[in-house]
Amino acid sequence: MDLFANTPPDAPKSLAELNRLIAASEPLVPGATQAVLGEGPVHAPIAFVGEQPGDQEDVQGRPFVGPAGQLLHRAMEEAGIDGSKAYVTNAVKHFKFELRGKRRIHQKPSAGEVKHYRWWLDLELDFIGPKLVVALGGTAALALAGKPVSVMKERGETVFGHRRGYITMHPSFLLRIPDEAGKRAAYADFLTDLRRIHDLAEQAA
């Protein structure tokens, strides 16, 4: 499955132009309030790529501000990664959900939806130019690798096309673990990955 064939010939020539295009686009799956753009400095040494905006991200228009994002930023700080110098974004730019009563429950994007947004992500990362791109979870890894990826089997250093990469779990996975012992163990593993990510980015500087 080739996810790298969608970049249009009249692609934006700057990150600001790309963001304007994304912000003006209609969600592929109706219902999202707004597109959620990436945040962080151009030439950030590390770019973290998640799945898609969640409920709070959709409301606030910012990536990784909900519970999973708060967990990510806490873990980054513990691992020595300066959050103000990292770039965070998502493979899919609009929130996909189903209504249960008044609650909007996250729904995983399909491979086709990931493909729809793929050229935006690829161009976005070209403009940022990170030393290391981190896939947080399977959907991000699918978007970056262009093929399905087993996070637990392929977790660790990798290459996404011409980019140096790293695959780890999405912080939302940690939040879903029901028992505290399992949650602590998974968080420790996540911290190990983030410390390795920190070191790899430092070595590439």
Write a concise keyword list for the protein shown above.
205 residues, five-stranded mixed β-sheet, 43% helix, 16% strand
What does this structure look like?
It is a single chain. With about 200 residues, this protein is an alpha/beta fold. The protein has a single domain, classed as 3-Layer(aba) Sandwich (Uracil-DNA Glycosylase, subunit E), CATH 3.40.470.10. It is about 45% helix and about 15% strand. It is built from eight helices and seven strands; from the N terminus they run H-E-H-H-E-E-E-H-E-H-H-E-E-H-H. A five-stranded mixed beta sheet has the order 2-1-5-7-6, with helices on both faces. The longest helix has 25 residues. The radius of gyration is 16 Å and the shape is globular. The N and C termini lie far apart (about 35 Å). The N terminus is likely disordered.
Give a brief rundown of this model.
The protein has 205 residues and is an alpha/beta fold. The chain contains eight helices and seven strands.
Helix content: 40-55%
Q: What is the typical, i.e. mean, pLDDT?
A: 92
Physical arrangement of strands within the biggest beta sheet: 2-1-5-7-6
CATH architecture: 3-Layer(aba) Sandwich
Strand content: 15-25%
Flag low-confidence runs.
1-5
Q: Give the C-alpha Rg.
A: 16 Å
End-to-end C-alpha gap: 33 Å
Shape: globular
Q: What secondary-structure arrangement, pairings included, does this model have?
A:
Blueprint: H1 15-24, E1 46-50, H2 55-60, H3 67-78, E2 87-90, E3 97-100, E4 103-106, H4 111-128, E5 132-136, H5 138-145, H6 151-154, E6 156-160, E7 163-168, H7 171-176, H8 180-204
Parallel strand pairs: 1-2, 1-5, 5-7
Antiparallel strand pairs: 3-4, 6-7
